[in-house]
Amino acid sequence: MTYQNPVVKPTHWGYRGWWLAVGGIEWCLPVEEHGLNEYRPWSATVSGASITVSDHEDRTGLDVAVTISLDAAHSYVTIQPRVTNSTGSPQKIQFWLNAMLALNRNRTTDSTRLLLPSSQVTLHSTGQDGLPEPGSKLDWPVFRGRDLSRYANWRGYLGFFASPAAGGDWAGVYDTSNDQASCACFRQEWRAASNSLAAKELTRPRGPTTAARTWNCGAVAPTFWDDTTIQPARRLAGPSAGIP
């Protein structure tokens, strides 16, 4: 269900001006989009049906750990992130859980639908004609007569955030051609004001690129233009669940 890139090759996305679009799920901090730690080898420990991945962020001194768990009573994966400030000063942070989904033979097809409990989104960036500037509000799912929840109606990449007024606690992607879907649900005490859904062209070794879903969710800030501050000796923690 997650995209697996056959080639590890930088794209032009991300805070640094490059990003290794490997696939799977990445934990992005301390800045917007893909952060600065997604390319690093994180530590991992296993306990029963849970695995915890962790890393120390050099620029801010923050420690991050994410526990991914299965249990016999439910048919979903539970993801519990924790970011700890052990420094002596407040630290500004963005933290995004970024799952790259490609629900049909490692591709995003024209049968893909994006599902949000929202009537409005905020545009992050786009390569499509006919859409307003970043930061603008768009009616969702139909904007100027075009149903943007249908990937077949896209004419280039598109990234957006759910409206803070929506108050929803889930977001989903569904490929109707093979009846494959993924949904992320959030507990309100962890979920920030928005989720983000996007599609980007991820690099292939030669020839045309392949489109894969980049799905940012479970953020601690409403958009990439906002930060959250963690005070000294405090931990930002909370559960979210991705449901296949």
Task: Describe the model.
This protein is an all-beta fold and 244 residues long. The protein has one domain (10-243): Beta-galactosidase, Chain A, domain 5 (Distorted Sandwich). It contains no helices and 22 strands. Strands 4, 5, 6, 7, 10, 16, 17, 21 and 22 form a nine-stranded antiparallel sheet that branches. The protein has a seven-stranded antiparallel sheet with strand order 3-9-19-18-15-11-12, with no helix packed on it. β18 (196-202) and β19 (210-217) form a beta hairpin.
Q: Could you list some keywords that capture this structure?
A:
244 residues; 7-stranded antiparallel beta sheet; disordered C terminus; Beta-galactosidase, Chain A, domain 5; mainly beta
Output mean pLDDT: 81
Q: Which CATH architecture would you pick? A: Distorted Sandwich
Proportion of strand residues = 35-45%
* Uncertain ranges: 191-195, 205-211, 240-244
The geometry reads as globular
| β-strand number | 22
CATH third-level topology: Beta-galactosidase, Chain A, domain 5
Overall structural class, as computed from helix and strand content, comes to: mainly beta
- The helix tally amounts to 0
- Number of structural units classed as domains: 1
Instruction: Tell me the span between the first and last alpha carbons.
Output: 8 Å
Query: Can you tell me the CATH class?
Result: Mainly Beta
Which sheet architecture does the biggest sheet show? 9 strands, antiparallel
Helix and strand string, N-terminal first?
EEEEEEEEEEEEEEEEEEEEEE
